[in-house]
Amino acid sequence: MKRFIIDKKLLKYIDVGLIIVVILIVIFGTINIFSVSQPTSRGYITLTKLKSQGVFFIIGIVVMYIILTIDYSIIGLYAGIFYWISILLLLITKVQDKLFTTAVNGQANWITIGSIKLFQPSEFAKLALIIMLAKKIDDMDGKINNGKNFMIIMFYALLPVALIFPDLGLAMIIFWTVLGIVFAAGLNSKVIFGGLAALIASIGLIWNTKIITSNQKSRITAFINPSADPSGASYQLLQSQIAIGSGGLFGYGFMKGPRVGGGFVPFASTDFIFAVVCEEWGLLGAIFLFLLYAILIIKFIKIAKDSKDIFGSLICVGVISYFLFSIIENAGMTIGIMPISGITLPFMSYGGTSLVANFIAIGLVLNVGMRKNKLNF
């Protein structure tokens, strides 16, 4: 049991403020999930989501604590195992979809048993990739501009994308996460811009193929001209914009949002939880949430800068990139400045796997911060 007890000498290095901020976001998220999970004339579920979120919150806290008891350098020794297990699970979801057609909206992200959804391997694959890339670059002594080293990094980065595709939301998260890591590692700017150009060209080439489904295309392009299909692909976005705009400065109040509470905004407790915040809590509620996120990111950056090694620093950079893009994309798609991608809002959106994965990410960052000194006596 001593293995799972944090050394008292390390306790003083735990960023308690970071943990408090995370818990505040989770509580705020849970309040909003509860608000839109009440019975309505459309027969929406009652407290099931609230109870489920509470259970996964506890699981997330426990898993985060366990991670804190293990030196992140030891975790790095098993980076390959974590990575290849995540690849295997992604492969299973791919095969499972082909055999049993488990995809929803062209996306197959769940490990299932019959009709029971167990978990989303892609959520953990993002973290496994962060650990793997950070470890590899650390082993390379940061020499990422070496041609061979760069190709190795790209291999590990592109493999999960190939298995996740055509889930464009997850593919985008991985892309920006990897971009953040290689940028921080000092990758030549010409290579970065070349990669961006290649990505744009690749999207242009596959746009008219069957790889990207018509449903995905309509979701992506809906934000360009929402009024073109108000009752179809643009319905969700338009309802979200109405909800957000009508919230004003102070919002309608808890459980009083007519759009989100009335079930007019699909996936209000998951993808479009930001619309709930804006309609019920107004602009002030949105500012409060972004302030908490800003504190979180600033603390991440400080821990990354103070890390004792490349490995720890790049783990933090990966988590920063992952969180920052998710926040910008999720809020952006609800107001119509980003394409609708199905990316959830960290610690706010309903979802057990996502919540636990986010706590693992927090645990990794705290772990790096706790062990920022080379020697601990």
List keywords for this structure.
377 residues, mainly alpha, 15 helices, globular
Layout of helices and strands:
Elements: H1 8-11, H2 16-35, H3 48-68, H4 72-77, H5 79-100, E1 111-113, E2 116-119, H6 121-139, H7 147-164, H8 168-184, H9 189-206, H10 214-221, H11 235-246, H12 258-261, H13 273-306, H14 310-335, H15 352-370
Helix pairs in contact: 2-3, 2-13, 3-15, 5-6, 5-7, 6-7, 6-8, 6-14, 6-15, 8-14, 11-13, 13-14, 13-15, 14-15
Describe the structure in your own words.
With 377 residues, this protein is mainly α. The protein is built from 15 helices and 2 strands. It is globular. It starts with 7 loop residues before the first helix and ends in a 7-residue tail after the last helix.
Compressed to H and E, one letter per element, the order equals HHHHHEEHHHHHHHHHH
Tally of individual helices: 15
Show unreliable segments: 40-45
Helix percent reads 55-70%
Reported for the largest beta sheet, the result is: 2 strands, antiparallel
Terminus-to-terminus distance = 21 Å
DSSP strand count:
2
Gyration radius, rounded: 21 Å
Helix/strand/pairing category = mainly alpha
